[in-house]
Amino acid sequence: MAKPAVIVVGADKGGVGKTTVSRTLLDYFSANNIPTRAFDTESPRGTLKRFHPGITEIVDMTTTADQMKIFDTLNTATPSVTVIDVRAGLLSPALASLRDIGFLDAARSGQITFAVFHILGPSIASLDEIAETANFMIGAKYYLVKNFINNTSFFEWDQATYNSYFHRIKDATELTIPKLNEMAYEQVEVSSVPFLKFVANKGVQDEPANYSFVLRGYVRHWLANVWSEFDRIKLTDLVGKDKGGRSTNVAEAGEK
């Protein structure tokens, strides 16, 4: 049996678009036929669950009972990938909890595949998070995500300053999430469906919808670019499945 894979998506600052990244991951794994479950730690009402209700459970990662829901079931749950969308401000505490329960040791010994998607903010304070998070990254795949979804001038750091932080972590990998047209993004938010369903013009219950052709085109093009980044880092290999069988056409994937 393939070993379980856990992907933590988070940041120590709010408003950086971490749940948007989690949603693109769930769409990507769905298109690649990789069974996935998700946990939304924005308790009691989670944004991720609103878009992916069928596979998402809301938990409070600060409680032992909910930690058991996630990690005691890694080897018994059918899905091979677990995505955890960590509430804003809780990335470092969440990683500390994973250390305390022995999860990081299990990842270090190869029992579990572990990856962290660290969504960066525009300030130097966000870069300071890198140094703190680095202490937990032994045995993990660490991705520093520059998310331009909210603002085209999102990153204004001096490049030398950024490099000095980035190079503190051995084998860290950069990812870029491009900007999505504001009106298209807002329309997906209002529809409360995954990006793939929006592209396929489907509603919450897969019923035919009537979304704008133009806005669907913007989302299709943007999602294809995001998926190209995931392909570049060989994300399907990371979770134990060779890429294959998925159409590179986002529209075709949405029709499945």
Automatic annotation (TrEMBL):
The record, for InterPro entries, names: P-loop_NTPase
Protein name (database record): CobQ/CobB/MinD/ParA nucleotide binding domain-containing protein
Organism name: Rhodopseudomonas palustris (strain HaA2)
